[in-house]
Amino acid sequence: MAHTYGTGSGVTDMKINKHILIKTGLVILLVIYLTALYSSDNARNISMDQIAQSMEKDQAITALNKETRADLKRYYQTEERDIDGFFFYKASSPMAVEEICIMKAKDRAQAQILLENAQTHLSSQKNVFEGYGTDQMALLNNAAVGKKGNYVYYMCGANAHSWQHAFLSLI
Amino acid sequence: MKNKDFNKLLLLIPAGLILVGSIVFLYSRPGSGDDRICQENVAKLQELENADIAQTEQQLQNLKKSEEDDSLRNMDSSTVLDDVQIRQAFAGSVILGDSITNSIVEYGYLDTDVVVAKLGLSVSGADEQIATAISLNPSHVFMAFGSNDLEIYGADSSGFVADYKKQIVKIQEALPDIPIYINCILPITDAAIEATPDLAYYPQYNEGLISLCQEMGCTFIDNSAIVEGSSEDLYEPDGEHVIQDYYPKWLTHMAQAAGLQT
Question: What is the pLDDT of residue A31?
Fold first, then answer.
């Protein structure tokens, strides 16, 4: 009887199994977490032409001014030749803040830089219009700026969040 | 002897006749009453002469303004400076102002080494911009304030003009020999005025600026004709700001006013 409750191999085995189970469980959880984390920033590899074709169905976008690579450089400090394409429409009036810009980076590191440039542009716009235009500030405060995979987007306007939804559903 | 006496007599007779004739002429002139009439007539003639000159000058000025306005209204691609010419013309100058001026940079005509502007800027709040302009040591200074001041000063155009004068004095003290050009406040649409009644005072503000320019030795630049009577609607939907097509014409007009055209 004493053998069952003493320092016998049965109790020790139970303890070892329990530790193995706990460790295994934690590792599995970690793998699941990392997988979820990685896949949440994943995006389908779709060309900018396809994205443009889809987004340009929205007349609220095509009513804006189609911007050039010079404007990409001016507003986002980004050279077209350094990235994998862009889609950029902006209100023609300097007094308006409606804008949609999607850039496709060549890799994740570049995407992070593009995101920072987009955030800087938003800060700059807020700085320009602060204390001047309440309507513009409201739109800027509601702007959608983000990154998914190698894509970076800046969307400002009454339809900013519907644009964001439409774009993210593409990728 | 007799011949000599006779010759003398011959000379004396005409001389005497002339003398007598002169005396007779002088004493036969009209009296003091006629002099008075003559003086009155002379005074009237002078009055008419002066009045004619003043009126003629005014007519000439009106004619010149009318010609200038026609020229502004009829500006086309052959008379408007192109992008390169604009940059060349304004190199070394400074243009100070608010959002309307800021759009010169936004539309890419000039850069911030020439344009010192900020959205919402009023003339009294432009101390920093004035200091920046002075530090650039420009050859010509153009100022374009007023759109935001209408809602600040309202009916008190004299307050606006007084603050504008302070800023001009700062520039003149720092840059004594530099010509300063003051742009008018652009006409504002009825719709914009209906929404913001204070905007209706812009004519009084412009009158104040004209007087200020005369006082301070600056040049007033009236750009109204560019927007008024234009075949194209040059206004933004807000009725205060103007679209891109306005800017080459405005810049050309400023360059013409300052003799900066190449």
Answer: 85
